[in-house]
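Attaching the record inline, Q. Sequence:
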Amino acid sequence: MENLKSQALILNKLGIEKLNPMQKKAGLAIESNQEIILLSPTGTGKTLAFLLPIISKLDIDCNEVQVLIVVPSRELAIQIEQVVRNMGTGFKTNTVYGGQSIKKDFINLNHKPAILIGTPGRLAEHIYRETFATNDIKTLVLDEFDKSLEIGFELDMRDILEALNALETKILTSATKGVELPKFAAIKKPFVVDFLANGIEKLSLKTVISPTKDKLNTLLNLVCVLGNKPGIIFCNFKDSISLLSDFLTQNNVSHGCFYGGMEQQDRERALIKFRNGTYQLLIATDLAARGIDVPEIDFIIHFQLPLKADEFTHRNGRTARMNSAGTAYVLKWENEKLPEFITNTDLFEIKEAPKPEISNWTTLFVSGGRKDKISKGDIAGLFLKQGKIDKEDLGVIELKTDCAFVGIKKSKISEIIDQFNNTRIKKRKVRLYQV
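Structure, as predicted:
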């Protein structure tokens, strides 16, 4: 009964009325099994599905790490950490991943979190350095395990698994079926919760034929037809993204880019701007096919055809999420042969359409965050009450540890910066500028 009360409070904080069928079944499975494989489409709430039963088992008197969540990318680590924060449980959570200063990790881990989230390489390094003890880690989650158990992560994953001698529960999640588990994962008789079929019926697959091999003008025409709706255009290589980005820029189509070679700060800001509507299009590699926190997406476009079936599945999983429908467009040159795993697509003929309008939203940087005791309400109150802008002119506010990003109408950005740059929020003097 106490767990049900706690769960109700958490769902209320998250603004969720009730759990979906997958989350309910996953919760029961995790409570009564030692090995669980959770298969469900991207965006169906797998993170909450495993966090709720995990948190209910945490020992409030334990001062060591109790849960280890291994993820294949830093974006997924950050996303899960944010979900835990939003749940407001009071349990400390930290992330560790490559690209972030290891000195910062040491500072964060000086006071041990109950839940530690990280990428295989950085977690293995901390285990080798004995930054934290592993004796109290009872639960291991391999989120997107089809990536974290790939050959490239094998040595790090072996080191992690060998160090966890007190494990009682292993939870593996994925949006892909039929992944072979390596022997070192030591999964013997897992209980499988499979909801993958539920997402297929909401997805429409359409093929767009390009008369030219470069497909650029066909893509531009398709983007014009789709209009001002949020979508992701997938490429296989970062060089292709650069080429496509230059082409769209020349044609005055606003967009962001997201791929592995970008600086971490630039990747994070690309997602922030996509979330708050500064731009509606994101050009990305398969890095964006899983584990990133983005809003409902109306469509995805396979500008370059995926090389593997699971890449196709994960890309498509960015749309038609939860209760929403979505469309995946396969853009192919007329002489190009589709891979065997792309089937049952309908032909989509492009008609003449005007170019999408440039977004009237932009992004404001605020140089103060959680560590300065600044809340979203403080920022909203400052702009709405003292700045006297309308609620309709203020968009999404994202609060980070040491800064914040605010979606704001372009027509209001100059007056807000002029009025509040170098002013104080709480006791912190903050700088404001457009990013």
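Residues 306 and 312 are 6 Å apart (CA to CA). The mean pLDDT is 91.

More tomorrow.
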